[in-house]
Amino acid sequence: MSKATKKKYVRQELLADDITLSESQQVVKIVASRGNNLHEVITANGETFLSSMPSKFRRVIWIKRGDYVIVDPIEEGNKVRAEISSVLNTHQIKSLKKDNLWPKEFDTAAIATYGEETSKPQKEILDASACASDDDLFVNTNRIFDDEEDYSSSS
After folding, report:
1. Is the predicted pLDDT of residue 50 greater than 60, yes or no?
2. Which distant-in-sequence residues (6+ apart) come within 8 Å of 48 by Cβ?
3. Res 9 pLDDT > 90
4. How far is the C-alpha of 95 from the C-alpha of 120, rounded, in Å?
5. Sequential DSSP letters for the chain
6. What pTM did the predictor assign?
7. What's residue 24's pLDDT?
8. Which of 74, 100, 114, 132 has the fewest CB atoms nearer than 10 Å to its CB?
């Protein structure tokens, strides 16, 4: 099988809407990329550890901070304790929420991640994006929005 055909099947597998969790699998959130196909993840309980990306996903799909993935535990690992088995998209997340398989701790994680230091307009944008039904608009979380009063008082 050629590389292009393998990539096609991996993409189809990731875009499938039917997601089921086995007893050993868990949903985690990507906190940071540590390089060398290792990602730091956080569980619903607040536990952080490293997870590895299998070779079939490399150069096919990219993961960024804040994405949710399903991981399989690795028993022999000390630092790397899980392997990514699936990357979740918005439709799969909605399906997991509908089936009550989604961790409740991740429902309020968007506001808690940015803490109290986020400005008021940023929190309003995050709240609005959380309530939107099918409007999956991109919110740039790397920029902190300042009030317009700060700019007018400096001149």
Report:
1. yes
2. 31, 40, 41, 42
3. no
4. 31
5. --HHHHHHHHHHHHH-S-----SS-EEEEEEEEEETTEEEEE-TTS-EEEEEPPTTTTTT----TT-EEEEEE-TT-SSEEEEEEEE--HHHHHHHHHTT-S-GGGTSHHHHHH-TTS-HHHHHHHHHHHH-SS------TTSPPPPHHHHHHT-
6. 0.66
7. 93
8. 100
